[in-house]
Design a protein that fits this description.
Elements lengths: L1 E5 L3 H12 L3 E6 L9 H4 L4 E4 L3 H13 L3 E4 L8 H11 L2 E4 L5 H16 L7 E8 L9 H13 L5 E4 L7 E8 L6 E7 L4 E7 L4 H14 L4 E3 L1 H4 L5
Parallel strand pairs: 1-2, 1-3, 3-4, 4-5, 5-11, 6-8, 7-8
Antiparallel strand pairs: 6-9, 9-10
Helix pairs in contact: 1-7, 3-4, 5-6
The structure holds NADP nicotinamide-adenine-dinucleotide phosphate (NAP).
Length: about 240
């Protein structure tokens, strides 16, 4: 498979290593210094674009790749409000689009545990739920896209929760997310249900960026030759 890396920072470099090990070619590497190379003629060399840049530029980059008729894997977080537009563009152009707030296999399993735990906690009002996320100090968005996904799953599965709040006190209808920024942390997420009697916590700890990179390449392999809108549940064959 021929891959265009849109964004060649920490994640772009990690993805390149995994892609090369799995026998793929990287035919284009885009940073803010050579954005003009993201023209359709250059993109056409690639079977898939893998986009890990920054929240402010993800929409433009993803739409440019989809408009050029290239399948897109999108890992940039913090631009959820524009995902619907990208999904519609993929359908219009008959290409494939897959966005994930977190590409790690472990986190995608953690997501399923989170949904189950939230549904089990219905009818247990003595427990207060909260999410803690810790990332490296270079992370531009807060809370993390993964924490927003976890909160959304809790809101869908736990009665009485309507919204999430960042670094704020626990209102009855909201899921508080506490974002911590610490040097060199690739990504740690904990969901806690706390009562006066006990706490229940589930934690996912990424030891490096390799898990995100492997998941992004697996996703690129999955959408190769397909068209439509997909998720990591499709890649990992997670039912329900
Ligand atoms: N979904 C997941 O599993 C997952 C996992 C980890 C991270 N992420 C997300 O992925 C994104 C990137 O993370 P990172 O750690 O790789 O960031 P990073 O190290 O800051 O790299 C960002 C890259 O994007 C490039 N870039 C910036 N503006 C651009 C533009 N307008 N056009 C093209 N390229 C541009 C940067 O180029 P310059 O250096 O030249 O500016 C750099 O190469 C973040 O949103 C992060 O939250 C997602």
């Amino acid at each position: 498979m021929k891959i265009a890396l849109i964004g060649y920072g920490k994640m772009g470099h990690a993805i390149e290593q995994v892609a090369l090990k799995r026998g793929h070619d990287v035919v284009l590497r885009i940073t803010s210094a050579n954005r003009q190379d993201m023209a359709a003629a250059h993109l056409a060399q690639a079977d898939v674009a893998i986009e890990f840049t920054a929240p402010a530029v993800a929409r433009e980059n993803v739409l440019a790749c989809l408009s050029a008729g290239i399948n897109v894997i999108s890992g940039t977080t913090g631009w959820n409000e524009n995902l619907g537009e990208a999904q519609a563009k993929a359908i219009e152009k008959q290409v494939a689009f897959l966005h994930a707030s977190n590409f790690s296999i472990g986190v995608n399993i953690f997501f399923e545990v989170n949904k189950l735990l939230a549904s089990l906690m219905n009818g247990q009002p003595e427990y207060n739920v909260s999410i803690d996320e810790t990332h490296h100090t270079g992370k531009k968005d807060a809370p993390s896209g993964t924490a927003i996904t976890l909160a959304g799953q809790i809101i869908q599965n736990l009665d009485g929760k309507e919204k999430w709040v960042l670094n704020d006190i626990n209102e009855a209808d909201s899921v508080p997310i506490f974002a911590h920024r610490v040097e060199d942390v690739p990504g740690t997420h904990t969901v806690t249900y706390s009562s006066a009697i006990d706490d229940i916590s589930i934690t996912h700890t990424a030891h490096s960026r390799d898990g995100f990179a492997l998941g992004a390449v697996l996703a690129a392999e999955f959408i190769f030759g397909k068209h439509g809108v997909f998720s990591m549940k499709d890649v990992l064959k997670i039912k329900n």
